Amino acid sequence: MPRTARTIGNLRTIGAILAVGLSAIAAPAQSQDEQRTMARIAAQPAVKRALAYIEKNEPTTTANTLAINAIPAPTFAESARAADYAARMKAAGLHDVHLDEAGNVLGTYRGAGKGPTIVLAAHLDTVYPAGTDLTVREKDGRFYSPGIADNARSLAAMLVIVSAMRDAGVAPVGDILVVANVGEEGLGDLKGVKHLFSQRKDIKAFVGLEPALGADGDPVTHIGTGSRRFKVTVRGPGGHSYEGFGLPSAVHAAGRAIARIDDLRVPSEPKVTFNVGVIQGGQSVNSIAAEASMLVDIRSANAPLLADTERRIKAAIQQGVDETNQRWNSKAISADIVLIGDRPAGQMAKDAKIVKLALAAASAQGRPALLDGPHSTDANLPMSLGIPAITMPAGGSSGGYHSEKNEWWAPTNAFAAPQNVMLTILGLAGVQGTAPPAIP
Fold first, then answer.
1. Does the pLDDT of residue 33 top 80, yes or no?
2. What CATH number is attached to the domain comprising 384?
3. Using CA of residue 179, residue 184, residue 190, residue 195, what is the dihedral sign?
């Protein structure tokens, strides 16, 4: 590593340990096996050239971040960005680049054909609807634009990792399957990775890229927050607000149900959350509402608590319906509850091989080895299937996620995270003549 980069890395180590945020914590002591393995990989001549390539070409990676982000990609409408990204994959030298039936873009960095298939993935979609202004504003070293951190930077990071390995002649043992997937955000409900794992039974490990959500440094996420999402539709007879007064209103019943939901108490550890995010209903100011709907989100990394909270929220909805019928001496109000999102919770042990390798990758670079708190990402799905999976940052600093006016990304030491990711996937896949695959 160049002396400047090593100095920056050492300063980051000291600074990050002193300024670790609440969501990122110092990792437990790593085993010597992973540290020795990662040190050998990082010292291998081709890998050293690839690490240097990533640092040297960070300006290009930043430019790619801006270019990718300029292409709209709302959930369920990622096709334009997918087509552009497929061309970028081909230019980076990946083989068998194609779009699958779900709209994911896939390409392979070929190994020796004697090892596991390791997935490196980042999602194409953003939370922002069609028509959102994606103009970039630069201020105080930050780039402001919707989706720039989540997840344009991650897509750009995958390209530089692949280009670096190709340029340096890095030869893994196993294949690295690079995936730009659809449907991670919102009601996409992990569409892309669900399809991927339904079709590919050869995947042995998964590394997803996301921004470092509210954390210092480049922490590794090993806990997947599960979520259950519902559309609740309340129905009633409807009528004129004056002539039909006395008939029960679907809007009033929905309001009672929401109040009952709001009264629920849930534990803070393990963390459980709930939210009524969208409410619709009614016809006019002088109509008794015949229909009202709401979208409900429930989250926790603890599957039993998630299930228990779901049961309690469904009971609260029914209570609101019953109380409204009782108030108006009626049986006309009813509620339908439809599941519209199911992200399974998952978790990798702190001493899982994939977690220890990712932490050792940071240590091999003279950087702090950090674990992040729970997050909901594409890695939830493989975790729930028992497949080794983690989420890693794509580099730089960022904030204001999911806020059209406030989302930003800054290229502060941005090359460091892609370097960590490359070392991690090489540890999993193995490097010919240097280290066998960590995953059988």
1. yes
2. 3.40.630.10
3. negative
